[in-house]
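User: Can you recover a sequence for this backbone? Please restate the input before giving your answer.

Assistant: Of course. Working from this structure:
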């Protein structure tokens, strides 16, 4: 069984679980004009252990196409919320990082809410914290599984379109 202190750390954002601090920060980002998908992508990048991700990784995590992710990343880049960083070992590989300075205005705006949330967490029993953290963990797993299912639907749909195109062109049912 985890200690009360470790449950509080989980509840308040440790290890990417029950990340209420991040949720508050992202609420602040919405206040500066970004939409929910932009906010989700920023949150995914920030929650990654290296705080960097490739467009392909973001597409996989969100269930969106790589084209849609490219559009989102272009928009975030123009608004200076992210920057691109080339992989040192493979210059063809590009990672995106959130610019920390882009988060400062919304974070300041929501600092009071964060303090109130911390006070609320301190009043919860260990059992209450356990239930909340377990629920958040299950929700995160469900979201990952849903993204995987959506990606499978998209892949099957693309495969069917390729087969139809091949047949229309007098080819075989095999897709490339």
């Amino acid at each position: 069984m985890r200690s009360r202190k470790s449950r509080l750390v989980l509840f308040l954002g440790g290890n990417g679980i029950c990340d209420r601090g991040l949720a508050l920060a992202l609420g602040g980002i919405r206040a500066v004009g970004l939409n929910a998908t932009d906010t989700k992508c920023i949150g995914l990048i920030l929650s990654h252990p290296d705080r960097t991700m490739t467009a392909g990784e973001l597409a996989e995590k969100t269930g969106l196409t790589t084209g849609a992710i490219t559009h989102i990343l272009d928009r975030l880049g123009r608004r200076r919320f992210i920057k691109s960083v080339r992989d040192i070992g493979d210059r063809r590989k590009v990672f995106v990082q959130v610019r920390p300075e882009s988060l400062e205005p919304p974070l300041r705006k929501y600092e009071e809410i964060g303090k109130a949330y911390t006070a609320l967490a301190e009043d919860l029993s260990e059992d209450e914290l356990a239930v909340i953290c377990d629920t958040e963990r299950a929700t995160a797993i469900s979201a990952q599984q849903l993204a995987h299912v959506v990606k499978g639907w998209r892949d099957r749909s693309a495969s069917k379109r390729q087969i139809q195109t091949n047949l229309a062109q007098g080819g075989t049912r095999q897709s490339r």
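That completes the design. The first strand starts at residue 52 and ends at 53.
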